[in-house]
């Protein structure tokens, strides 16, 4: 829906409603999947103010002719047609609950958008709507339909105006899944400008015979499909109005672009192939353009065809392109119309760009993935899974292929579905049986949830709720047969059972959920020995293990949790070593963040979740369903490709720990039976990319998030790696070597500022199965000394060396991170010494300080300190600032209370020439002993 600005002006110009210059840029509706819900497609786009005046008389729309794109226009100028009633012809008032008889609508000659009349809906409490009679707007299912219209509102706080549409069958009954709503208009009590709304309905239902329109002014109760809470009420407006004008229905070509592979996921080195189809009832010549673009919207290939179509005879074409590098791609089929849109033979491929003559009248897109062979894990990874709880049954046939591409070893499925029949519940659920058999062959484990209560059972319970809580106080004889059959039939084929889903707030302070859990465990124990039952949980809520003994937590980690907080949340929900957690990781919301930022954050979340060692890390199935001429198809997202890469690289591995390499670098080491994988990224914003020199083994390689492999430059066993915010995966590394390097550490991670001498230890761990011996040469920062400067050692397998050292450093050493380096010479490989590094920080336990430098326009240098007393006693000291070539300045700090902050300011005139130099700022005791000092770059 990104290119509606290319379509709406042409449609409006065709009806002579308004000039194209008055239209805003809007997204293209024909790129969206078919609307199968009542949610608005997009937010309303507000036009510039249009006065309530009539359009020129010669702009009246004409009756459509066969093949015309204009199917019907409602301008409500019906007096000339002999209609002297107060409502338009063939429009009937909607009656029923929430639509009181005393509300209504009528023609209005005082407010209008074009000509002299609009249709006004007036509130008097309740909702009001008018519907165009079924059968009065006949259509053919061989075309798509587009509706545009204008709405103006006044006096609305809660109610909203909208246009809705759906297909009806030959008997005038609504066809399920075709109801679609426009954006809802009305945001305040004031009179608003005319707002353009639009609806796209693909003609994919062969039973469709007419199009039904409805103009509505709806209260929140009629717009909501959610049940109210115990003490909630619906708000509503008592007074208010909405005007409707210039509603037009357009007939558009039907387009289809599909692939022959499940979920549009192409295996490595496979040629992507597409089946194209265009069906049109119009008479215009057309031009079709197929464009392939990558995730960054760069065009990688296109083809063009000129078409002369006859009504009822669709154009079909099979297109194949050479294999593409691993990535996420979009295939776009555009259709242009106009007198010059087609020239030459029909369906003739042409070269050149996409600058086709004529107007863009339809667009269809499909997304696909090109994959590459990655990873060490050949079997499904039990540490990773996909949540397919809400995936439609008609698409279950694709799941085995999707799971095989992803490499996961666990999938979450519904044991109960709302639409299950009595036959499926008590005898045989054919789709479920087939899927479980395929998953068993693939060695994929299953978690099945009793989530939605089937409608068959809901009717017997006389409860409109589909929540499993409705079973708690119901007669067990009603629901036990349905549970028992499923448990008996599938107990040996399903690995885990779950009660409830994300909509059931088990984490709420409601004792009914604990009772439901206990009752379900009792039912399970009659058919399954030592049953382990999973329950859904939200990581933002505390968990009481006493209320749910031995429960497996299916924990959802919302995107509102920061990525680096994920391990803490997972571990906090594992109160004892035997507790098991399934972690469902949510990505950041699409549209609110840049593409690369969202993928980067997602990858970090997966790695951090995996580092907490839950039973498995899952994500919601990263696919959507789209409807077009070819029917329902599955569309992958780019998250699938990133997740696939991480699963393939980390599946079957043991997390060894996080290594300390450089400040700001996060490095997570995983071991595949001696073959290591290191995932690392730079989270230090000050240096978004840094270069590391790491001893990783003889033939390390790098893999990006899309699965593309790169060789690393290696010199004398040391690899050069560029690390930025986006995680990079280093594979085929010597895991023991990396673990050895990462174990080097100083016993004291914080060096006390102003002390000058520190007694601590040096530690090193032997990760090998044989003794490790050699010599360690210590290399402290400039101006520092370490005693002894070297040490001879022998460490037994799995053991750790801890040797005492004395560290001496300047009393005035600047605060901040420091690096203690060392060179390790192993007796077993003396020709290849290893460079080690340990990170420490010079800081004070009594004072915290932030420093700022700023040049004024007149060349004056201003330095500022924010000093906080972090001790438990009042602080009496001196602060100072030393600038090269200028006299030192100092300030007194008197009785600064604990946890209080004071600001000290220094001014140096005529200092512009010092830009780029370094000043020293600090705090010292009154006897001259330095407490804390920092270097400040003058800029």
Topology (SSEs and partners):
Layout: H1 8-15, E1 45-46, E2 70-74, E3 91-93, E4 104-108, E5 118-122, E6 128-132, E7 144-154, E8 160-168, E9 180-181, E10 195-201, E11 210-218, H2 220-223, E12 241-252, E13 254-259, E14 265-266, E15 273-279, E16 286-294, E17 299-307, E18 315-320, E19 327-337, E20 348-350, E21 359-370, E22 381-387, H3 399-406, E23 408-414, H4 422-426, H5 430-441, E24 445-450, H6 455-461, H7 476-490, E25 496-499, H8 511-525, E26 533-538, E27 552-557, H9 566-572, E28 581-585, H10 595-611, E29 616-620, E30 623-628, E31 631-636, H11 638-650, E32 654-659, E33 665-672, E34 675-682, E35 690-695, E36 701-703, E37 709-711, E38 714-715, E39 718-723, E40 728-734, H12 735-743, E41 745-746, E42 750-752, E43 757-765, E44 772-779, E45 785-787, E46 790-795, E47 800-808, E48 816-826, E49 829-843, E50 847-855, E51 861-869, E52 875-882, E53 889-896, E54 901-908, E55 918-925, E56 930-937
Parallel strand pairs: 14-21, 22-23, 22-29, 23-24, 24-25, 25-26, 26-27, 27-28, 28-29, 42-49
Antiparallel strand pairs: 1-10, 2-12, 3-6, 4-5, 5-12, 6-11, 7-10, 7-12, 8-9, 8-11, 13-15, 15-18, 16-17, 16-19, 17-20, 19-21, 30-31, 32-33, 33-34, 34-40, 35-39, 36-37, 36-40, 38-39, 41-43, 43-47, 44-46, 44-48, 45-47, 48-49, 50-51, 51-54, 52-53, 52-55, 55-56
Largest sheet: 8 strands, parallel, barrel
**Count of individual helical segments:** 12
Percent range for β-strand residues: 35-45%
Uncertain segments of ≥5 residues (pLDDT<50)? 1-6, 16-67, 342-356
Percent helix range? 10-25%
- How far apart the termini lie comes to 47 Å
CATH homologous superfamily designation of the largest domain: Galactose-binding domain-like
Overall pLDDT, averaged?
Answer: 83
- Reported CATH architecture of the largest domain: Sandwich
> How many β strands by DSSP?
56
What's the CATH topology name of the largest domain?
Answer: Jelly Rolls
- The strands making up the biggest β-sheet line up spatially as 22-23-24-25-26-27-28-29
Q: Any idea how many domains? A: 6
What is the molecular shape?
globular
Q: How does the helix and strand content classify structurally?
A: mainly beta
The radius of gyration is: 35 Å
CATH class of the largest domain: Mainly Beta
């Amino acid at each position: 829906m990104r290119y509606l600005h290319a379509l709406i002006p042409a449609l409006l110009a065709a009806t002579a409603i308004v000039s194209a210059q008055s239209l805003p840029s809007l997204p293209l509706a024909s790129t969206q999947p078919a609307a199968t819900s009542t949610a608005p497609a997009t937010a309303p786009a507000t036009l510039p103010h249009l006065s309530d005046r009539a359009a020129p008389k010669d702009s009246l729309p004409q009756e459509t002719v066969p093949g015309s794109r204009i199917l019907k226009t409602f301008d409500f100028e019906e007096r000339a047609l002999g209609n002297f009633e107060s409502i338009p012809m063939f429009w009937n008032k909607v009656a029923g609950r929430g639509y009181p008889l005393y509300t209504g609508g009528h023609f209005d000659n005082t407010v209008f958008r074009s000509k002299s009349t609009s249709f006004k809906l007036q509130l008097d409490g309740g909702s009001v709507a008018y519907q165009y009679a079924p059968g009065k707007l006949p259509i053919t299912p061989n075309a798509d339909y587009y509706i545009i219209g204008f709405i103006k509102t006044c006096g609305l706080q809660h109610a909203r105006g909208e246009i809705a549409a759906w297909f009806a069958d030959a008997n005038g009954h609504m066809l399920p899944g075709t109801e679609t709503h426009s954006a809802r208009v009305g945001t305040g009590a004031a009179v608003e400008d005319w707002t353009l709304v639009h609806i796209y309905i693909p003609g994919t239902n062969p039973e469709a015979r007419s199009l039904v329109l409805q103009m509505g002014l709806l209260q929140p109760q009629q717009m909501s499909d959610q049940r109210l809470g115990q003490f909630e009420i619906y708000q509503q407006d008592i007074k208010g109005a909405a005007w409707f004008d210039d509603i037009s229905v357009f007939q558009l070509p039907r387009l289809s672009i599909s692939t022959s592979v499940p979920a549009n996921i192409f295996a490595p080195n496979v040629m992507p192939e597409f089946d194209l189809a265009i069906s049109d009832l119009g008479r215009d010549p057309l031009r079709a353009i197929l464009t392939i673009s990558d995730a960054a919207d760069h065009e990688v290939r296109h083809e063009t065809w000129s078409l002369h179509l006859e009504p009822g005879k669709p154009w079909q074409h099979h297109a194949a392109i050479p294999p593409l590098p691993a990535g996420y791609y979009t295939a776009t089929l555009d259709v242009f119309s106009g007198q010059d849109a087609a020239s030459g033979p029909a369906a003739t491929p042409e070269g050149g760009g996409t600058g086709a003559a004529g107007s863009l009248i339809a667009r269809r897109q499909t997304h696909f993935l090109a994959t590459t062979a990655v990873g060490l894990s050949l079997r499904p990874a039990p540490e990773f899974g996909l949540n397919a709880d809400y995936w439609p049954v008609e698409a279950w046939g694709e799941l085995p292929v999707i799971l095989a591409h992803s490499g996961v070893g666990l999938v979450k499925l519904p044991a109960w579905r709302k639409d299950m029949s009595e036959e499926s519940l008590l005898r045989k659920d054919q789709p479920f049986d087939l899927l479980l058999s395929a998953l068993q062959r693939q060695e994929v484990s299953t978690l099945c949830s009793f989530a939605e209560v089937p409608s068959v059972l809901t009717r017997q319970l006389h409860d409109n709720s589909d929540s499993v809580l409705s079973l708690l106080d119901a007669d067990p004889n009603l629901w036990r047969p349905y549970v028992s059959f499923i448990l008996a039939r599938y107990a040996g084929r399903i690995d885990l059972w779950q009660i409830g889903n994300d909509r059931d707030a088990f984490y709420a302070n409601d004792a009914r959920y604990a009772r439901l859990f206990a009752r379900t465990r009792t039912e399970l124990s009659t058919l399954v020995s030592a049953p382990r039952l999973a329950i859904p949980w939200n990581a933002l809520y505390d968990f009481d293990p006493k209320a749910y003994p031995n429960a497996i937590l299916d924990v959802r980690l919302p995107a509102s949790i920061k990525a680096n907080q994920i391990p803490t949340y997972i571990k906090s929900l594992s109160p004892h070593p035997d507790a098991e957690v399934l972690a469902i990781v949510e990505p950041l919301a699409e549209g609110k963040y840049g593409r690369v930022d969202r993928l980067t954050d997602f990858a970090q979340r997966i790695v951090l979740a995996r580092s907490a060692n839950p039973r498995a890390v899952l994500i919601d199935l990263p696919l959507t369903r789209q409807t077009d001429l070819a029917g329902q198809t599955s569309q992958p997202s780019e998250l699938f490709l990133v997740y696939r890469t991480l699963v393939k690289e980390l599946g079957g591995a043991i997390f060894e720990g996080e290594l300390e390499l450089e400040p700001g670098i996060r490095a997570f080491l995983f071991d595949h039976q001696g073959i290591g994988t290191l995932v690392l990224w730079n989270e230090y914003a000050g240096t978004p990319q840094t270069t590391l020199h790491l001893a990783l083994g003889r033939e390390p390689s790098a893999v990006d998030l899309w699965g593309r492999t790169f060789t690393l430059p290696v010199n004398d066993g040391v690899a050069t790696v560029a690390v930025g915010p986006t995680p990079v995966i280093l594979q085929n590394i010597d895991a023991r070597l990396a673990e050895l390097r990462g174990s080097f550490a100083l016993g004291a991670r914080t060096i006390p500022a102003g002390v000058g001498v520190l007694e601590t230890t040096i530690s090193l761990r032997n990760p090998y199965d044989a003794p490790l011996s050699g010599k360690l040469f210590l290399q402290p920062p400039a101006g520092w000394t370490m005693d002894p400067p070297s040490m001879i050692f022998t460490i037994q397998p799995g053991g750790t060396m801890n040797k005492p050292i004395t560290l001496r450093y300047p009393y005035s050493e600047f605060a901040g991170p420091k690096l203690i380096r060392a060179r390790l010479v192993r007796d077993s490989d003396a020709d290849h010494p290893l460079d080690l590094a340990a990170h420490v920080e010079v800081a004070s336990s009594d004072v915290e300080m932030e420093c700022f430098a700023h040049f004024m326009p007149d060349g004056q240098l201003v330095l500022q300190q924010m000093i906080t007393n972090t001790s438990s006693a009042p602080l009496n000291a001196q602060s100072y600032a030393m600038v090269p070539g200028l006299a030192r300045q100092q300030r007194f700090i008197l009785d600064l209370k604990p946890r209080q902050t004071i600001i000290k300011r220094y001014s140096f005139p005529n200092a512009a020439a010092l830009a780029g130099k370094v000043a020293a700022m600090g705090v010292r005791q009154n006897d001259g002993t330095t407490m804390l000092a920092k270097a400040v770059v003058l800029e």
